[in-house]
Amino acid sequence: MKKLAYILPLFLLAACGEEPAPQPVDGAAAPVAEATPSLPAPDQDLFTAKYAEACPEDEAVNTAVCKRAGLGSDDVICEFGLGEDEYLRNSATLTAGDGEWVFAEPDNVCVG
């Protein structure tokens, strides 16, 4: 019985990986995915400029962190602090539109 316990794993290992790789078909081109242009990830400078444009009466953005809303999402959630506030107390959603980032809800962006 002990010999079978030693031989069985060796037999199973020998059986793995024995299938030959498929041969490429001549004349058939591999499918090529079309490249879609995407916007660069928004950073603190871009968000600060967008916020100042949308809310000129509010204090300037002091700190901001932007990250994707979810896997495959076109939206970016930016958390930010205004004035001397170093904490990320506020948030706004940016979405891709007409080749640039725009606020998803422009009427609800301004804090003050």
TrEMBL record:
List the PROSITE patterns hit by this protein, alphabetically.
PROKAR_LIPOPROTEIN
- Name of this protein: Lipoprotein
